[in-house]
Amino acid sequence: MNKTADVIIIGGGIVGCAAAYYLAKSGTKNVIVLESTKSIGHGGSCRNGGGVRQSGRDVRELPYAMYGIEHLWPTLSEELGVDVEYTQKGNLRLGKTEAHLKKLQTLADNAKKVGLGVEMVDAKEVQEICPYLSKEIIGASWCPTDGHANPLTTTLGYYKRSLELGVSYYTDAKVASLKKIRGKVRQVILIDGTVFEGEQVILAAGYESRAIARTVGVDLPMTRLIDEMFVTEMQPHMFDIMLGTAAADFYGHQAHHGSFVFGSECGYEEVTDMDDPSKLYTNSMTLSASCRAVMDYVPCLKDAKVVRSWCGWLDNAFDGVPFIGPCLDAEGLIVACGFTGHGFGTAPAVGLMLSQMVHGEKTVVDLSALAPNRFMPNK
């Protein structure tokens, strides 16, 4: 077991795997990735609905979301040697009430200020874009450059290519703490006492990042929330666009093989008995509510059978956007967590920029608004 590296990455999800790939591609010879579970991508990376979107985001996220969609996603299958099933056919975010439309209009107006091509469309235009939707929909935001991809093949694609480039992965490697040596974060200590040492450490372990960062005096204010997914039996081809709603009660798309994949929240998740992170099971009450939400917007799916459901943990940042960047009060530590359910589609861009941070390069877009120290006490 090699216990020293130029860069140690904590977290074997898509962000960690992408960072490992771009580091190895850029010439970093010795990269170690530590994953706490038995499998790569065990967390939210492989438990989401695959949205690759810009619309509906906080404006602080838009620059790197837009960069990834313009420069990275279109050629990612060829680069990774795996079909990531990237489909760029647009995203409708649907509304049924005037309050919904007001919310969507605000999001669209804010997005247009930073250069995103997103427009409001009326009920007639919604039906022209996707005639399978409910006639109760009175309008939507429409972003034609949004899309979707396969989270499993994308995550494993980054893993496979980084392995080929020499990255070392260790599973069942749960981190207990970090340690500073002469004022700089250099050591990563596992719960069994094993010590890894690196010139720089990237912390991309989802919600678990908070406890790990606290061991060197860094707090990343976030909470944990269950996000549920389900997939239907295969259906005749209907549409290739991504769907979302102003009320955020579901999102999803039709996969290449015909099944529909939906992610959802009904509001009840926060009060269900899900305190143990190992209990990744769905709830009959929340799942049925999610199905009703889908049927309200896509009535033609009312008789479609649900063949599988699953869930995963979201790391919800206090202000709804992630923590990405070096920690000012913990030299040598770079964090990337708190993605609040928005992390899959931006992972290629985030992985690339983490590599740039390690090398001391200017990132492709300005990330200062997402700095980990933005909640530091100032009194």
Structure description:
The structure is a single chain. By secondary structure, the chain is of the alpha/beta class. The protein has two domains: 172 residues, 3-Layer(bba) Sandwich (FAD/NAD(P)-binding domain); 155 residues, 2-Layer Sandwich (D-Amino Acid Oxidase, Chain A, domain 2), CATH 3.30.9.10. The chain is 26% helix and 27% strand. It has nine helices and 18 strands. The strands form four sheets. Strands 1, 2, 8, 9, 10, 11, 17 and 18 form an eight-stranded mixed sheet that branches. A four-stranded mixed sheet has the order 5-6-4-13. A four-stranded antiparallel sheet has the order 14-15-12-16, with helices on one face. Strand 17 and strand 18 form a beta hairpin. It starts with a strand and ends in a 21-residue tail after the last helix. 50% of the residues are buried. Keywords: Membrane, Oxidoreductase, Transmembrane, Transmembrane helix. This is FAD-binding oxidoreductase. GO terms for molecular function: oxidoreductase activity. It comes from Roseburia porci.
Uncertain regions spanning at least 5 consecutive residues? none
Give the CA-based shape. globular
Number of domains: 2
Rg from Cα: 20 Å
Average predicted local confidence, pLDDT: 93
> What's the β-strand tally?
18
Based on the coordinates given, report the CATH architecture of the largest domain: 3-Layer(bba) Sandwich
- The level of helicity is 25-40%
User: What is the CATH class name of the largest domain?
Assistant: Alpha Beta
CATH topology of the largest domain: FAD/NAD(P)-binding domain
Q: SSE order, as H and E?
A: EHEEHHEHEHEEHEEEEHEEEEHEEEH
Q: How would a crystallographer describe the biggest sheet?
A: 8 strands, mixed
Structural class: alpha/beta
Task: Estimate the strand proportion.
Answer: 25-35%
Superfamily (CATH H level) name of the largest domain: FAD/NAD(P)-binding domain
Distance between the termini: 45 Å
Instruction: Give the number of helices.
Output: 9
Transmembrane segments: 7-24
Organism: Roseburia porci
Domain FAD dependent oxidoreductase: 6-357
GO molecular function, one term: oxidoreductase activity
